[in-house]
Amino acid sequence: MIKNLRFGAAISAAALILTSCGGGGGSNNFGGTPSPSPAPAPAPTPTPAPGTGGLFTPPLQRSLSVTDVQTIIAQAVGEAQARNLPSVITVVDRVGNVLAVFRMNGANQMATVSRKTIGGQAAQGQEVGLQGVMVPATTAAIAKAVTGAYLSSGGNAFSTRTASQIVQEHFPPAPTTVGLESGPLFGVQFSQLPCSDLNTRFRPMGGADALIGPKRSPLGLSADPGGLPLYKDGVVVGAIGVMGDGDYGFDDNILDVEVDAEEAIALAGIQGFAPPAAIAANRISVDGTSLRFSDMVVSDLSPLKNNFAAINGSVGSLIPVTGYTAGNIIAGTAYGTEASGVRASTAAEFTNSDAFVLTDGAGNNRYPIRGGTDSAAVANPLTAAEVRVVLEEAFKVLSRARAQIRQPLDSRMQATVSVVDTHGQILGIVRSPDGPIFGTDVSLQKARTAAFFSNVAAEQQLLNTPGISSIVQRIRTFLGDPTALTGTVAFADRSGGNLARPYFPDGEVGRPPGPLSTDQSSQFSPFAVGLQTNLIAPNVGAHVAFVASGGTSTDTIERCTQVPDVAPGQKRLANGIQIFPGSVPIYRGDRLVGGIGVSGDGIDQDDMVSFLGLNNAGIRLGTIGNAPKAIRADNVVVDLGNANVRLRYVNCPFAPFLDTNQQNVCEGL
After folding, report:
1. What CATH number did the domain enclosing 210 receive?
2. Please, are residues 354 and 55 in contact by the beta-carbon 8 Å criterion?
3. How far apart are CA 507 and CA 523, in angstroms?
4. pLDDT tens, 25-50?
5. pLDDT band with cut points at 50, 70 and 90 for residue 120
6. Range of weakest confidence among 52-56, 253-257, 300-304
7. Residue 259 shares a structural domain with residue 399
8. Contact between residue 505 and residue 645 where contact means Cβ atoms under 8 Å apart
């Protein structure tokens, strides 16, 4: 999530101190009562040895019980009563299973997606993307909870306020930071989508695969404060999400400290299940700026109430939500078990003993390593042996790399690696043991996005997409290249991300929006980023209608975006596109054969694992590798009239490894 920013005097030292205070500097700020078991402070991971296993310590297998869920809800409801804000309160486990949804009497049934755009102005009759859409309050609460669970790990505890900080047009977001680059995870909010083919759907209770994850989120990841992670024994076990005020928005000014009732309610809910203070977002900085965990602290809360029996049926009740919960409380699954859908790999599945894979709940790898499915379009598709080597080499790089969003310092990077063919079909997915869950879907989005925009078929795919076809000419005009999107340029996700920002170059106000962004910079919001949103808005709309109707309307299909199928039941962009770095296309000579995506622990680190991992696989194999230098996107120079701006391809960390002082590891490759 880290990238170089032109971070000058726009924020004063006093403002930075204010930022660091906003998330609670110690346990008294956000975890006022003891955890059920002592929450151990994390320790640095041992220095790794390249190519060996046993370098990671898998997280303890912990989960929320029914009693835990009852306590969390009762505590949250008590604070909501004290603040006179009837709310919808949701609890999920680490892989996104909805364990309960509680609606207080008088709570808003619906919420409105924020119309706020750049400069804090509300869109007036020009809403784009998801702005202004009415959604069930239950879907907003679930999205907040999923966000808190999916962004967190044993080394970092992130909230929806953290998410808000890192997805906006300037980082950090504030009136005084105009002119800085966009947030490091710009675009991540449109992942974990209800149409994603990776994320699992609601499955009937009692089936062997009922609780496998990762589960989908109804609205993607949330930037609206009120979603906080839950921990036991220092292990993330889920999250709570609260929707009460009817406004599904974001915080565009990090310089103030909000009095946010929804966040206070969530904070009350996590008492006894708070993350260790040492890993909270406010203990993690990005280029000198502390991230934000919560603007509310324990001293802001009313006396805790934890008697669920006293509120159930009188203050409110458990409710069903179509596609997510039957209206009762269930226990969470322990991450790392077969039942959770994510577990340690076997020796037959992957050679590195540290790797985790996605499973179907019955012992089978959901995405076993295989060769390319695209022989109709590619003369020599990727072989299973080649895919295995790419994943192995990428995992080796990952295992040696220094983490950027984990505490303590000098922890090892944790992430997910995905490989796809030119049809977007999954050829293999591996994870490190404690990589944040969000990176699974995002790594796949990244791999598919790099392969798609580098593909000779991209032009026709976009021309045949309803409501999207004009984007082809817009890109060509912007780049001054009438052949753009016909396979002549290899695009990494960093390259496409350059073109997806509301200002080009990124953050420089007064410049035009990138061609993949909204038509006008002033239209941008975290709910309207341009092509990324437009490709999936109909799917999200169909799903929201499905939930709101109680299942009487048709749910979205499990293949995002409106691009045509490349083969029956196959879409190249089956879980949407992603627009922040961490992927490169895979080539055999000068012919595209697939893509690799990495996500979880720093965007420069993600770039390095994909680029250097593929380079090392190419050295080992002699058959495939990175795109030829002559066609990489960093050869493209955009003429802005009074300036020429070169696209980027990848950006690797300067000195990234724990076991060597080697620098500039991607230079010249």
Report:
1. 3.30.450.150
2. yes
3. 15
4. 334 466 643 333 334 444 544 444 33
5. confident
6. 52-56
7. no
8. yes
Q: Is the pLDDT of residue 226 over 90?
A: yes
Residue scoring higher pLDDT (468 or 53): 468
Please give the helix or strand (H or E) that residue 261 lies within, else none: helix 261-269
Neighbour tally for 40: CB within 10 Å: 13
365 and 300 together in one domain? no
- Among 222, 224, 213, smallest CA distance to 98 is for 213
Query: Has residue 667 been placed in a domain?
Result: no
- As for how many domains the chain has, the answer is 2
Domain match, 417 and 561 both: yes
What average pLDDT does the segment 486-497 reach? Answer: 98
The pLDDT of residue 1:
29
CA–CA dist 93, 97 (Å, integer): 5
Specify whether the CB–CB gap between 489 and 631 falls below 8 A.
Answer: yes
- The answer as to whether 182 is a domain residue is yes
596 contacts 419 by C-beta, under 8 angstroms: yes
Give the Cα separation of 76 and 85 in Å (integer). 11
Domain co-membership, 240 together with 314: yes
Question: Does residue 364 form part of some domain?
Answer: yes
Residue 379 has pLDDT above 60, yes or no: yes
Say if residue 375 is in the same domain as residue 288. Answer: no
Bridge partners of 62, per DSSP, are none
Return the DSSP state at 291: -
pLDDT at res. 9: 24
The residue whose two tokens read 């999916």 is 150
List of residues 6+ apart from 372 with CB closer than 8 A: 378, 381, 382, 383, 421, 422, 423, 425, 427, 593, 594
Q: Mapping DSSP to helix (H, G, I), strand (E, B) and coil, where does residue 415 land?
A: coil
What pLDDT was estimated at residue 30? Answer: 67
Spell out a b/e string for 335-354, using b for 16 or more CB atoms within 10 Å of the CB, else e.
bbbbbbbbbbbeeebbebeb
C-beta separation of 51 from 396 below 8 A: yes
CB 36 within 8 A of CB 272: yes
Residue 125 has pLDDT above 80, yes or no: no
SS3 content of the chain, % helix, strand, coil (to 5): 30, 15, 55
The answer on 409 and 263 residing in a single domain is: no
For residues 475 and 607, membership in a common domain is answered with yes
In sign, the C-alpha dihedral spanning 384, 213, 245, 130 is: positive
Residue type, 416: T
How many helices (H) and strands (E) would you count in the chain?
14, 18
- Dump pLDDT digits (tens) for 65-76: 999 999 999 999
Give the least confident one: 128-132, 159-163, 213-217, 622-626.
Answer: 128-132
Q: Would 666 be classed as within a structural domain?
A: no
How does the average pLDDT of the chain come out, rounded? 91
Query: What burial letters (b/e) apply to 445-474, b meaning 16+ CB within 10 Å?
Result: bbbbbbbbbbbebbbebbeebeebeebbee
On the question of a cis peptide bond just before residue 502, with omega within 30 degrees of 0, the verdict is no
Stretch (H or E) spanning 582: none
Q: Which pLDDT band, with edges at 50, 70 and 90, does 19 fall under? A: very low
Cα–Cα distance list, 512 to 55, 281, 403, 483, 500 (Å): 47, 33, 34, 22, 11
Six-digit token string for 627: 């795109």
- Domain encompassing residue 269: 13-36+62-120+129-332
The phi-psi region of residue 99 (left if phi > 0; otherwise alpha if psi is between -120 and 50; otherwise beta) is: alpha
- Together in a domain, 100 and 213: yes
